[in-house]
Amino acid sequence: MSLWIIRILFLSLCTLGGYAVSQVRPEFVSGPFSGLLGAVVGFGFGWLMIAIDEMLKGFSLRAFSATTFGLLLGTVVALLIDNSGLFEYAEHTSTRWLIRLCLFLSFGYIGIVLAMRSNKEDFSLIIPYVRFAPQNKPDNLLLLDTSVIIDGRIADLIEANFLEGLIVVPRFVLKELQQVADSNDPIKRARGRRGLEMLNRIQHNPRNEVKIHEGDFPDEKEVDTKLVRLAKHLGAKLFTNDYNLGKIAELQSVIYVNLHELTQALRVVLLPGEVLSLRIVREGKDKGQGVGYLPDGTMVVVNNAQTAIGQQVDAQVQSLLQTGAGVIVFADFKQQTAPTFSNSLPR
Questions:
Q1: 0.90 cut: is pTM over it?
Q2: Which CATH architecture has domain 275-333?
Q3: Are strands 166-170 and 141-144 parallel, antiparallel or unpaired?
Q4: Which of 139, 310, 332 is nearest to 236 (CA)?
């Protein structure tokens, strides 16, 4: 509503301005109805501006600045070509004028298109990018390696809004994913295709912007070494599932996050004596045992629960065993005793 108030005020000023011009400069508008004609011209000019405003709805300030810069860059290039002396031998002035018109229109259009297609990082390479945020607040760059993309949990974290920032996927990581997806090994091929699906899922998430980084280090052959160097160069946080890559990054003072370690840190802390409710899904290794899983994937071995496969049971924690793959919980099947009723009648 406030926007239309401003538009009506602007339209009124344009109408009054047109009437004033017709009275002050009669050489522009003359005749017995010059005042009315001037007011109509001003009113029409105001409506034209409002129509342009409606057409530019959704046109951001960044797009406007990029368009202006692209037009300026194209004009400078056209001006340099025009002053180079290539068209000095044009026979007629009209021919030279037509050549100059085509030159400026063509390079102006090309400059606008290139500026609009460029992203924030490309644009800031030429001129400083104006941000409506404190200048001391750095970009949060999240650099993904191949293992964490294939794993897929990074996509869940992004969709759950646990991670915020610019997702950076290097071109050499994307190439490695494509090579794995084209492998003759069916297992590797399935992993590669899953990685491409996860990356496509991350790209379609509107919460975070995804940047395919073109940077490479031709002198390095290993992808892990390239990732560490790129993370150090960009000041990015490296996300990986590779333990060795994480340690190499740590030695070179690169911040990294290992999703396996994060999962371990977020596991539920269980103490002996606690009662769990879980579903027994299969037999255990020893006789009479049943195996179930907690929501976070922790395996629970329940003694005397082999007969309860497929049922939801209660189990009391007895001990925990730490292994390289995680924690295994050992528990005892807790029988639910049915209430007993006396058959005798009161005397």
A1: no
A2: Beta Barrel (2.40)
A3: parallel
A4: 139
